[in-house]
Amino acid sequence: MSNLDRRPSARELGGLEGTAAGPVLDLLPGKEVLLGESTRVRRLLPTLGRRLVGAWAFVDHYGPDDIAATSGMQVAPHPHTGLQTVSWLLEGEIHHLDSLGSDAVIRPGELALMTAGHGIAHSEQSPAVHPRFLHGAQLWVALPDAAREATPAFAHHRDLPGFSSDGLTATVLMGSLGGATSPGTAHTPLVGADLDLAAGADVVLPLEPDFEYALLASSGEASVEDAPLDRGAMLYLGTGRRTVRLRATEAVRLLLLGGAPFEERIVMWWNFVGRTGEEIAEFAERWNAEDERFGAVVGYDGERLPAPPLPPVSLKARGRVR
């Protein structure tokens, strides 16, 4: 999915300063952003107070939206470098096309994992005939230096592992949790898991103390270590936790994101992840020139998204938090 902000700010992310040295419960404020022609999302990362959780660098949560009388999600071809996109649907369908020739319809409970690496382009659309509701999350994972120039790839995993316990049904998108390991390829130690809690559930979830974690409430309201977490909000948990207690008085869906703190410093602007401002400027120039680095999305009926003008100011190192 694209960052469609026409005046995106450039950010330097990464490094261990700003990583919580122990457990915390910090509520991360999101902001509403218009995505494409009609889809509004809540952007939780990057946001005021935090720019990364492990290697997770970007989190958009959208819906549930009634799109019965609309065209739904319509995101034209756009590029990516140096990251992975992780698409997760709770309701609806998304048609994915990319410059590798991938053509897939993503449905709830399935993992769409695109590794941009050296460079890729893709589009995302609700099918012409689509379900009434659209609800999900779009996530980016920053690639470490050793993998950021990797050959682009797309994987569509329809069956994901998980486990059930005490009113919790967990599905593991990335990494490992509770003995279940995702088939998705990760390049840094991380985890992503959908947590479906039944009304009345009271669960203690095992965690890795070396990871930092955050929880997004996709639907419903939950209590996280006695702190309230409302729908559409994200709670940063810090590091040093071996467990976290989750309680729900109603049915709740949570998205758990975590990983080893990302030590490398990166620059993220628009839909690119690089290491310097000069590198980002080159990516934008080559995309607008229809350079072969990104290829072409065959089968999309419409124009590509142009890269917006670069900011007039030089990049400033701001680390993981601001």
Automatic annotation (TrEMBL):
Q: Residues in domain Pirin N-terminal?
A: 40-141
| Cofactor(s) the protein needs | Fe cation
What lineage does the source organism belong to?
Answer: Bacteria, Bacillati, Actinomycetota, Actinomycetes, Geodermatophilales
Under Gene3D superfamilies, the record lists: Jelly Rolls
Q: Which family does it belong to?
A: Belongs to the pirin family.
Positions of the Pirin C-terminal domain? 193-289
User: Has keyword Thylakoid?
Assistant: no
Pfam families, per database record: Pirin, Pirin_C
GO MF annotations, alphabetized: metal ion binding
Amino-acid positions noted as binding Fe cation in the UniProt annotation, renumbered to this chain: 78, 80, 122, 124
As to how many cofactors bind and how, the note says: Binds 1 Fe cation per subunit.
Record's keyword annotation contains Transmembrane helix = no
| Name of the protein described by the UniProt record | Pirin family protein
Query: Which UniProt keywords are listed?
Result: Iron, Metal-binding
State the source organism's domain of life. Answer: Bacteria
Among InterPro entries, the record links this protein to: Pirin, Pirin_C_dom, Pirin_N_dom, RmlC-like_jellyroll, RmlC_Cupin_sf
